Queue: 2 jobs
Job 1
Amino acid sequence: MPPEPIYVTRPALPPIADYIAEIEDIWEARYLTNAGPKHQALSRQLSDYLEVPHVALFANGHLALECALQTLDITGEVITTPFTFASTTLAIIRSGATPVFCDIDPTTYVMDPELIESLITDRTQAILPVHVYGNLCDDERIRAIARKHGLKVIYDAAHTFGISRNGVAAGNLGDVSMFSLHATKVFNSIEGGVLTFSDESLVRTFTAWRQFGQVGGENSESLGTNAKLTEFAAAMGLCNLRYVDENIALRERVTNRYRERLGGVPGIILNPERPGMRSNYAYFPVLFDSKQFGRSRDEVAAALARQDVFARKYFHPLTSQFSVFQGRFPISETPVAAHVAERVLVLPLYADLPLEDVDRICEIILQTP
Ligand SMILES: *Cc1c(COP(=O)(O)O)cnc(C)c1O
């Protein structure tokens, strides 16, 4: 029998008995959505787990990001990165603001803070960086720039569930941070999203936005939408949260195995290890330098695909190059991001990926013709 196909990720699921026990309460309460008991329990547990003062839950991470932009009235220019998932850039544009693309750091792939000030104009209102692959941005620099110019900082923290650096949890950086609880993330509620923040007045603002601008009445006091997390999704979150630390430890094992097999190979560039950081091992990105390695990223990806191993070219194309933008954002403005996007491959990584499969994946990579 040929081995089963291996995809870049595999959603974490709790034991089914856990989920059944959790949703029995929903049958009893007949409370299916609208911030019911499961939603409330998940809110409390997530603010503990993420070590943040306040959380607001949403139907998904993208809507959470749109909520942050729209309720903070960001309609001018937003300095952001093109080396990210579609959501970051689409949230800016769908909110009526204009993305201004900043280049990235060549080793961590997050926004290069040295370049931010040169992009600020009198229309700039916010900075929206992404902690890509869980590499935390240089928040101190970014905060200093934001303070000097009176800008908001909204982090796309979709990749940083459970991450902290020197004891500071990711969700405490910036004015607001967005976490995604999508099925493919380290921690999932099937679909779901979270905003974390310290300004208590935003609790009401964010709550209103996700339920038609209505807080305790029939009157819409703002132009909200429907972005509520259902009780079934919240129940899945409650179950998965019990196992997330165990899953992260298993992901670390897989990551270490990749590092053992691929570290030190000329032309294979791994993400730097992160001293002082509690990581979540969400992704294992590899850069292929074809001059040194002799084969390109695309050749390696094709060799893997021939053996039913489906690594992903995250993030290629850059969001600035999406066809919907019809060449409006020249790629020449972010040369480092362009370079990385042509060479990066994210390898399969999930808690129950057997180490023998990791070995086989590394063999295929190293033997790519
Ligand atoms: C997953 C992801 C999102 C969007 O999250 P959804 O919950 O799928 O809407 C946004 N930004 C980044 C970087 C992501 O990886």
Note: The CA atoms of residues 66 and 94 lie 8 Å apart.
Job 2
Amino acid sequence: MSPRNPYIDLAAPAVSELAPYLPGKPVAEVEREFGITDAVKLASNENPRGPSPRVREALARVLDEQATAGIARYPDGAGYYLRSALAEHLGVAPEQVTLGNGSNDVLVLLAETFLTPATSAIYDEYSFVVYRLAVQACGAEARVAASRPPGAAQALGHDLAAMRALVDETTRLLFIANPNNPTGTWVEQQALLELLRSLPPGVIVVLDEAYLEYARQPGDADAVRWLAEFPNLVIVRTFSKAYGLASLRVGYGVSAPGIAELLNRVRQPFNVNSLAQVAAIAALEDQHWIDACVEANAAARAELCAGLEQLGFAALPSRGNFVLADFGSAATAAACNDFLLRAGVIVRPVANYGLARYLRITAGTAAEVRKLLAALADFRSRS
Ligand SMILES: *Cc1c(COP(=O)(O)O)cnc(C)c1O
């Protein structure tokens, strides 16, 4: 055990109780640790095809001689061009768009803007861990709704009625991930609309659509259209997943202008750097690339699920670019994770979510999925 942190008593009470986010290990570190090469990383739900080729061209232009001076300058703090491009893409006014250093930043801004120790925020038991971190850091009361139980329809998914039941006059934020990470579960639009209709206007619903591009179904409405009816809705999206820009850190919120104006008061003035802004604009312009990536993901995810099933491992239905695979026990999941690391496949343990018998696996390229499935077959035959 590590020695007690001598500064812990000096920290804000909310911070002294925080458990930090545990990121997956970088590929190079795993390769060094296990003495392997050509490891594949299926741990963080990035787009294995990367961003549109147009992004590289746009970045090259920024990094050319003249623009190298560009990175000596502060970025455009208002993100004028990116917010305009997003506003046009989404059919909203630029004043409704808040840029973040990843959508993580927007989630934290929402917490900082609306939460105090006298307020509460609601999220699902197995939802994206950043909600808990953001709520706890503000010292607000976290009200954790039980997920749908294993075996039920939409097992481990959000139970919107359970979430609704936790709302009272102290509640400021209610987080919904659609689809959710790490479970891959989703909520139907009709159920979401019913929840929105049932809530008092003072409860802000944070609809996290980090995997929207992968999840969209024919006939689905764009949640942005709901803002007209529900000004207490904030939609949060990212360039980290389908758009392939995870490293550059850029995401955004879409909301009523009044909410965006408040977030803007808390936002660091230069929270999104110049390269990220340029890359995001270029990425947004190439929707064909996104379509192709979504198609490739659907094929890889189907192959992954079929392969898991063939090996006797159940996977939750997923609308993300990843699946949550069930290994039956925490011990088996841990042993499998260790086995996969030695075989050069990095997946994501989710014990920190209270889901110790599962591993989250990103649907990478077809070749990556084959490598994973071969390693899993190997694990199966030895255990
Ligand atoms: C990955 C992810 C995000 C945010 O990622 P950023 O890189 O900070 O934009 C947000 N929500 C969910 C559910 C995610 O899985």
Note: The radius of gyration is 21 Å.
